[in-house]
Structure formats: C-alpha cells, structure tokens
Design brief:
6-stranded parallel beta sheet, single chain, 830 residues, 4 domains, 32 helices, alpha+beta, Rossmann fold
Length: 830
C-alpha cells in the first residue's frame, strides 16, 4: 500500500523518524527489530548527503537549510516536506518478522530496493519547481528530489507491518543550479500511479529474488503471498479490525468513509521499549495459530538456489521459455499475434519475460482506456498496464514500450486537461481518424439541407405550435432546427432550459410540413421521456408512430441500420432510404454519445439520405461512458449552433444563481450561495434519508434525493424504505426479489482472470467461439493461478482461458453482474 501526507513540523518529524538510537548500522545483523534510515534522491547526492540520517541533518534539510548553510524558500507557513509511505503486504511482513526472512529487510532488502526504484521514477518524472515566465508561475521539470528513508516494523496496533517512510524535503534543484521549493502537485496527482509502480517492483523482486509465489489482492497491484493463509493475515491485522469496527458502529460502508475513520481513529504509535519481546510475541501468537512460515521460507530458498545454480546459457534459455509460455497463454497460442499493438515475433526479440509481457500489458492498457476515452493520461496507461500484473513487468518495461509505440506512431502524443491541470497524454491514430471523420461529416453537411420552413416564418409558426410561450433561447433553437440549410445542427442547452417544450413545437411544425421526426436517446428511460416530450398536445404516446413521431435508443438505431451502409443496394436498404427520406433525426442528451457511435450515426444518416440531424444536450452536464466527447468537439469546430442558457425550471433568484454556477463547474461557490440550507454531516446519505422522512407526505412527493455513487444510493434507499415501513406508508410483508447489478467492465478487462470473482454472474451475449462459450448466464465458481476461470451453467462445469478471447472484437459479448436481493412492499415506488 502507498499513501502521501504533508509533514507539518520539521522538528516533530526529526524527533519521530530520525531517532539516533535506532539508526545503528548493524541493526539487521541482529535478531532485534527497530528502525533504519538512509538518504536518497539525486538532489541528496548533489548535496553530499548519504548513508544514515541523523536528527540534526534531517531537521536542517526539512527547514530548508542546505549543508552549505544556504537557506531555501524561507516563507511564512513553509511546508517542510511530504511523507510518502510504502507498506509491504501483510504476508510479506509475516515472512520477514515471524519466519525470519532477512532478505526482505534492511538497506539492501527487497523492500528497500523496491522503494528506491520507485522513488527514482518519482524523482525523474514527477519532481518539479516553479519559474516565473511572463508573470505566471510555470511548473518546470527538475528530475531530482531530496529524501530520507526510514524503515519501520509495526503498525499503530503493534502488528508486524513493515513499511518505509520516505520523507521528501520541500527542495529541488532547478535547471540553472538554483535550489528552491518543490512543486509537488504532480506527486499528489499520481499517488495511485506511484503505488502501482511500487507494487510491481516489489512483486517482481519477491518472485524473482525471494522465490515466493504471489496473488493479486485488491486495487493498484496490491498482492499477498501464496502459502500464507488469509486467516493468519487477518489475525495480524488488528489495525484494520479497529477501522472496520468503528466504521460499522458509525454505519459507514464506503471506502472513502473508511478513509475518514482511519484518520479520526489514528493514535500516536505506541512506544516499543523491548523489541525482542515484541518479535517473540509475534512468533508465539502465530505459532499458536499453526503458522511459523519456516516451510514456506525453505521452499522459496530452495527455488532461488536451484535457479541460481544454472549457468548463463541455461538462464537465458529459461527467460525465453518463460516468455514463450506467457505469450502462448496470452495470444491464444500464436507467436505471431493478430494484435496491431504487438510486434511480430516479439517473443523471439525479447530479452526478458518482463520485456515480452510489457508489450501485452501496454496493448491491453491502451484498449482499456481506449474504450472509455479518446485520449488518456500517459501515467494512467502505465499504471493500468502494471496493475494487470503480468510476470516480470515493471515501470521500466512499460515506459520503454510506450516510447517504442510513440516512435512508431502507433501512439500519438499531446496534452489533455485533467482535474484542472494539463497532463501528458496519448491517443491512437484510429481514435484521431474517428474525430477527423466526424468533423468532416459536419463540414460536408453545411449548406446541403433544405429548410423545412423559411427562417422569416419560423418564429410565428413555432410560437403558435408551442403549448407554452417560447423564450428567446427556445425560439432560436427551434428556428435553427426547422430553418437551417445545414444537415447537422446543435442546440447547447443547460439543464432546466425547457428543451422538451422547444422540441414539442419543433415536432409539431415539422409534422405539419409532412416531415417525420425520429427521436434518438442514450437509454430506454430517456427514450420514454423523449417520446413524451415530442408528443403534440392532445396526442397519446400510442398515436405518435402513426403520426410520424417515434423514438428509440441510439444503440438500436445503429444495430438496425448499420448493415445498410455496407450493403446499400439490397431491397431492404432501398426501402429504408425511402422511409427515411423525409425524416428529421433529433438526438437528445447528445453529450452522452461516444465518438464511435457518433460516427456510426452520421454515416448511417448519410447512407439513408436523412436530410437533417439535430443534436441537443449540454456538453458540461453528462459525459459518454465510452470514449470521446463528440458533442463538445463539433461545437468547438464551429457547427451551426443555438444556445439555451436560461434556466426556467428554478423559481427563485437564489436557485437560478446556484444552477448557473453549477453549470460552469463552480460547485463550491454554488453551495455557498445556498448558505444555511447546506447541511454538513459525517454520514450524508443517512442524514439525507432522515431529512426526507421528516417531511410531510405532500412535501415528500415534491422532493427528490440525488446521490453520487451506488453505495450512497443503496444506503438512502434502505433507510427511506425502513422509515416508510415504520410509519405505515408501506404495508404488508415484503416481497423479496433477486436482481442483477451490472459491473462496468471494459472488453479488454474481460480477457483477464482477475476480473472474474467467484460468486459473480457471467452473462454471455451470443456465441464466443474462441473459448467455446454459448449464450446464457453462468455462475463464476473459481479462478486458477494459470489464468483459467471455472463457471457453472445449467449444472455443467466449464473452464476457459479468458486470454484466448480476441482483443479485436468491438461487441460487448461478455458482461458481469452481482445477484442482489431487494425487498419490495405494497406502496413502494420502483
């Protein structure tokens, strides 16, 4: 595990970490347990700092005083530095402190090696200072850090827990040789990336240098050792038990909420006077539980000795053999992969297992991000590649492979805005070509449409057709839809701007001119809302189709009509073109449409002769699940556009102000406008349910609760239902229903065994020939170390290797879900 915190006090940190009585050089040659320290970083080397860390030298560095006597960044409230903490897996701690594997600990142990390698990457890639350029503070990459490493052996509950604090001073050397304050924004932003890099290094060293076998266990590449029972791990995790117990007492179920409990229950670490007794107690406790780790250690030592006993030729052969085995498992037995992101003959050319597997890992990472984003943070791609945990892969291999793909122009470099800052990013030529084709389609459609009515007549006709008087924004948008000479037009409208009323008037005018209106939306609920919105006055939804008004999902429209693009001369395609000739397509919530679907939609519309496509939505409100931001992109490219910026849903100036600030991303300012109407609570989901239940039945009917995240929604639904049952609103005995809760997993992630958790349901949408899976639902029962997955369907057990699933397929053929049981009472609203 990895975490980052600010160092609040230089003297406090010096007293806590650099205790001179615990930095003796011969500590790890004894049987005692304690703390060891050493300097690190390119900056420390430049300052002549090396070896063990004394309290005096450490305090000076944290205070910005260099060994030369020069002082740096002496400003009020100066931050001394940052604490990057690296905690080894609990099972590895047990092998170090209970089984006595001294190869893990000390300045030359694998744990310190993993941390040093990780910090070398952090210094090289994330260290920055700031420089005044044209009156602005601009981050400048420096490539150096000054830090002190302190290895500790216990958790705050005095469990065996090896961890290293890397106290990074608020110092860095600029390119001109001047020392100044460290700009640590990139380090904070890449916290989880750093964690994944550390876990990959440590996992690789644990397997290759120590001889243990590992298994993934959690996020960010965290792992445990095979052979250390989970019960033993839990018995030595009292600190985690404290956190979970307190969270349960407070009713907190979310991971974020538990993070707060971790901080609020943190006590100063207990002082250990007799470390010999502490380690003896650890051994006795685990021996009583039946675990000493001695057999596991002996087996690991024997494995390493057998490997080291071979000569260089045998070791080279072993490397190639391991790479070939990995490749066969990963690319369905083919040494010449069909994957364009993998080099031909990559196994033969690889110099190590890690180098070969890095090609596979990076290709998978690009596809994982590529399904959700058009361009992606380069460091996040590297993190995803590492978290796949392919044997031997470290950040060195991943960075080298990404660089190779960039040189070959299989990846294109640029920058994107992420969390308010610009970051280095990559994309694929295919993603760029998709964007170029969308923009080309928009440009090609300019001046090619026939106005439904003349622009001069539009305002009067539209007002007459509308059930309510249209404001200026609504009228401009509707006029654009019925009068523009361009095939593709856009309406950018904020939430509550009255888009439904505008569309109703537009549809009425179009219908009166003999045009058919087809509404497209992202999901079925939106389709139902769109049908209702397009419905003219006094017309039932059932009459809409007969009147030439209809709506369907974008996915079903693409599925039904994509074949006509490839085969335009079939009788079915010709009939469809005749049907669509006088059709206007209106796409609602277009901001949710991905780039690939947008291109398919425009291509189909062109092939079917659709005269006009109106795209309606808010580019700042809802974003696509899959890659790209086509709606924002076409706006930036200069598409014909009308704006609906007036929120007519809110009835007071205060709420209109809140809505306006929210629309431009100023959430904190919006909350301040609400003043005392904002309620802060440590359990906001439960408090929201409590406040809603306190309302009268009439006010409840007019009040909705909105929540972010599945856990919060689940808590609110549960508490509201319990409250309604208690006050008699819900009646009778509950009906228990079993439902599927979908897991949002990319196609590429479905090619890795760690995605398949026992107990989940696997939904197979059609035949998957590569792994001999038939349509239906199956329960996942087991996963195996060799990467295979066992499922049970209709009473029949079947094993398959998900790595054999083709990476080239674009259809979502496999889905995962969790079976959940819910209670429904008489009077419940579902």
């Amino acid at each position: 595990m990895h975490s980052i915190a600010s160092v609040k006090s230089a003297s406090g940190a010096a007293n806590y970490f650099a205790k001179d009585d615990f930095v003796s050089g011969d500590y790890y040659t004894s049987e005692q347990a304690g703390d060891v320290s050493l300097w690190g970083g390119e900056g420390a080397r430049d300052l002549g700092l090396s070896g063990e860390v004394t309290k005096k030298a450490f305090a000076k560095i944290l205070n910005g005083e260099l060994p030369s006597g020069e002082t740096v960044a002496q400003v009020e409230n100066r931050r001394p530095g940052y604490d990057l903490t690296f905690s080894m897996p609990k099972s590895l701690s047990l092998m170090a402190y209970v089984a006595g594997d001294k190869r893990i600990l000390g300045p030359d142990g694998v744990h310190a090696q993993a941390v040093k390698l990780t910090m070398a990457w952090v210094g090289k890639n994330l260290a920055e200072g700031r420089k005044d350029i044209d009156g602005k503070k601009v981050p400048i990459k420096t490539g150096n850090l000054v830090y002190a490493m302190f290895e500790h052996d216990t958790s705050r509950a005095l469990d065996p827990q090896g961890h290293i604090h890397v106290i990074t001073a608020n110092l860095t050397k600029m390119l001109d040789g001047k020392w100044q304050a460290l700009h640590a924004d990139k380090i904070w932003a890449n916290n989880t990336v750093i964690g994944s890099i550390y876990h990959a290094y440590l996992r690789n060293l644990t397997e290759t240098k120590l001889g243990y076998q590992t298994r993934l266990d959690g996020k960010h590449g965290t792992f445990e050792l095979e052979g250390v029972p989970r019960g033993i791990i839990e018995a030595n995790s009292q600190r985690r038990e404290q956190i979970m117990l307190k969270a349960e007492q407070l009713g907190i179920v979310s991971a974020k909420g538990r993070d707060g409990v971790t901080l609020s229950t943190r006590d100063a670490k207990l002082n250990v006077q007799d470390r010999g007794k502490l380690t003896a107690d650890w051994f006795a406790k685990n021996a009583a539980l039946g675990f000493t780790g001695k057999e596991l250690l002996e087996a690991a030592l024997a494995k390493v000795q057998a490997r080291e006993g071979t000569g260089p030729i045998e070791r080279s052969y072993q490397v190639i053999a391991e790479a070939v085995t990995a490749a066969r498992e990963t690319v369905a037995g083919l040494l010449r992969s069909p994957d364009p992101l993998i080099d031909r003959g990559f196994v033969r050319l690889a110099q190590s297992t890690g180098q070969a597997n890095a090609q596979l890992a990076v290709a998978s990472a690009i596809r994982i991000h590529g399904q959700r984003e058009a361009a992606y943070d380069t460091n996040r791609v590297a993190k995803t590649a590492l978290d796949l945990a392919l044997p031997g892969v470290t950040i060195d291999h991943v960075d080298a492979r990404i660089t190779q793909l960039i040189k070959k122009e299989q990846l294109l470099v640029g920058q994107i805005r992420q969390d308010g800052r610009m970051v280095d990013a990559v994309t694929t030529p295919e993603a760029l070509r998709t964007e170029e084709k969308i923009l080309a389609a928009v440009e090609a459609g300019k001046g090619r449409a026939t106005p439904i009515i003349a622009a001069a007549d539009a305002p009067e006709r539209l007002q007459a057709a509308s059930p309510h008087e249209l404001n200026a924004g609504q009228l401009a948008a509707a006029t654009l839809l019925v009068s523009s000479p361009d095939r593709i037009v856009v309406v950018q409208g904020v939430a509550g701007a009255g888009k439904s009323t505008m569309l109703q008037a537009t549809a009425e005018v179009a219908r009166s001119e003999g045009k058919r209106v087809l509404g497209l939306a992202f999901q079925n609920k939106m389709v139902a809302d769109l049908k209702e919105g397009l419905k003219p006055r006094d017309m039932s939804v059932d009459d809409m189709k007969e009147a030439g008004l209809n709506a369907q999902t974008i996915a079903s429209f693409i599925w039904d009509n994509q074949k006509h693009v490839a085969n335009p001369n079939t009788p079915e395609a010709q009939a469809k073109r005749s049907e669509m000739r006088d059709t206007i397509i209106v796409v609602d919530e277009t901001s949710m449409v991905s780039n690939p679907d947008m291109l398919k939609l425009l291509t189909i519309a062109e092939a079917l002769g659709v005269d006009r496509i109106g795209q309606i939505g808010d580019r700042q409100q809802l974003l696509p699940i899959d890659l790209g931001k086509a709606f924002a992109m076409v706006q930036a490219a200069g598409v014909s556009m009308a704006r609906m910026d007036e929120n007519i849903r809110q009835r007071t100036d205060q709420l209109r102000t809140v809505a306006a600030l929210t629309n431009i991303g100023k959430a904190s300012e919006a909350l301040r406008v609400l003043g005392d109407k904002v309620v802060e609570h440590e359990n906001p989901a439960e408090k929201a349910a409590e406040m809603w239940l306190a309302l009268s039945p009439e006010d409840r009917a007019a009040t909705a609760i909105f929540a972010s995240g599945r856990e919060a929604r689940g808590t609110i639904n549960q508490k509201v239902q319990e409250g309604l049952a208690a006050d008699g609103t819900l009646k009778g005995e509950p009906l228990h229903l079993t439902i599927y809760q979908s897991h949002h997993v990319t196609r590429e992630e479905m090619r890795y065994a760690q995605t398949y958790k026992p107990g989940l349901t696997l939904h197979i949408e059609g035949r998957v020939d590569e792994v001999n899976l038939n349509r239906g639902a199956a329960e996942i029962t087991r996963t195996f170390a060799n990467g295979k997955v066992e499922i049970v369907a209709d009473g029949r057990r079947q094993r398959f290797n998900p790595q054999r699933i083709s990476p080239m397929m674009e259809q979502d053929r496999l889905q995962l879900s969790t079976l959940e049981t819910i209670k429904v009472y008489e009077g419940d609203r579902v």
